[in-house]
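ARCHIVE CARD
Drawer: 12
Card no.: 0347
Subject: one protein chain, sequence and derived structure
Cross-reference: see card 0346
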Amino acid sequence: MDESQLKAFVAINKHGSFTAAANSLHLTQPAISKRIATLELQLGSPLFDRIGRTARLTDTGDKLLPLAEKMLTSFSNLRKTADNMKFEISGRLSLGTSHHIGLHRLPPVLRQYTNQYPEVELALHFVDSEDGVQGVERGLLEMAIITLPANTPKSLSATQVWDDPLALVVGKMHKLARKDSIAVEELAKHEAILPGVNTYTRVLLEEKLALTGYKLHIGLSTNFLETNKMMASIGLGWTIIPESMLDETVVKIGIKNIDLRRKLGYVTHNDMTLSNATKAMIDLLDSI
């Protein structure tokens, strides 16, 4: 059992097929199939059920998965420790970020980082903030720059970088656009375009507006704030977006005594050895 076999095993589970996993690891499908076949032979049990083009974990595979992820983290920590001893800022940085932050906050940070540290291979993954937290928890990402959760898991450290005021908006022709201020009860009667139920932004909205006591009329749902804004702008309902995205295509809805804002920043794992590349990224973010 070696690192290459475990990487293949974890990648197949992540991507759901041997072909997709092979592509992600820049291998041929026969090569990745051979690694899994050898691993299954060593363990004396199949790890995947092959159903058409998909691969699903067997009971043995399901039990092996968390152990394999821990072993890969240990391999990674060993390399990082060795690299850190050389005081070089190089190697690979596996970084997760939300689509909104990646589009609106990170470009100048990444530009400065890549110019300053050209020897770092930056592996940027666009993920929902909730998936970014899970990725760091499981050791699949070294850090994630995301909307911070209200309650950070004990295994992680969270640091705020940006304050992100939010606004409720509608299109110019929407009925609510003509009112200076409205009550939450009235807002709940109108069609909503919101992020998914368990997203940090949706949870924040429901807590602040106490919308859990009302039956929302949600016609459309997507976690892409830019898409939600576009759909609101053409009159399909109201939505929530960062104030930094306000423009002439939408109208902000006023609700008395309600301050909507979220915290944007980064999370890292308390038990993971941070590479010099990650430390350099943290120093850059902390300087903002």
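Annotation on reverse: The CA atoms of residues 6 and 68 lie 6 Å apart. The chain has a mean pLDDT of 91.
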